[in-house]
């Protein structure tokens, strides 16, 4: 079995919606460069902020 990594050794980013730091996850392994949000809730809020408001 491969050696386990400490969570503190994993790369981190800052969420574009809430500004909190978040850590690399295995499910983001292939797409880490494009990950911008820490959760689905932040992604939904971030996309709502990106859309131009009509009116």
What do you see in this structure?
With 55 residues, this protein is of the alpha+beta class. The chain has a domain at 12-44. It has one helix and two strands, in the order E-E-H. The protein has one helix at 40-50; strands at 12-14, 21-23. A two-stranded antiparallel ribbon has the order 1-2. The radius of gyration is 14 Å and the shape is elongated. The model has no long low-confidence stretch (mean pLDDT 86). Pfam families: DUF2256 (PF10013). InterPro entries: UCP037205.
- For the termini, the CA-CA separation is 58 Å
Mean of residue pLDDT values? 86
**Shape by Cα distribution:** elongated
List the secondary-structure elements in sequence, H or E.
Answer: EEH
Biggest beta sheet summary: 2 strands, antiparallel
Class by alpha and beta content: alpha+beta
Question: Low-confidence segments, ≥5 residues, pLDDT <50?
Answer: none
Global Rg: 14 Å
Indicate the topology:
Layout: E1 12-14, E2 21-23, H1 40-50
Antiparallel strand pairs: 1-2
Quick summary of this structure?
This protein has 55 residues and is an alpha+beta fold. The chain has one helix spanning 40-50; strands at residues 12-14, 21-23. A two-stranded antiparallel sheet has the order 1-2.
């Amino acid at each position: 079995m491969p050696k386990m990594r400490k969570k503190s050794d994993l790369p981190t980013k800052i969420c574009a919606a809430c500004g909190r730091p978040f850590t690399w996850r295995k499910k983001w392994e292939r797409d880490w460069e494009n990950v911008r949000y820490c959760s689905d809730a932040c992604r939904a809020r971030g996309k709502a902020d990106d859309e131009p408001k009509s009116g």
